[in-house]
Amino acid sequence: MACVKNPEESVNVNANDCSLIVEKPLKMVAGSFYIPKNNGFPNPQGEDSHFICLEKQTIGVADGVGGWHEKGIDAGEFARNLMTNTVKALEKQPKGHIALKKVLNEAFIATNDQGSSTACILTLQDDSARAINVGDSGFMLIRNGTEELYKSPVQQAYFNCPYQLGKSINCQNPSVAQMFIQKINSGDVIIAGTDGLFDNMFLEQIRDLAKEGIKEGKDPTQVAWSIAEHAYYISTDRKAHTPVSKAASMSGRPCIGGKADDITVIVAYITDDI
Question: What is the Rg, in whole angstroms, of the alpha carbon atoms belonging to the chain?
Answer without folding.
Answer: 20
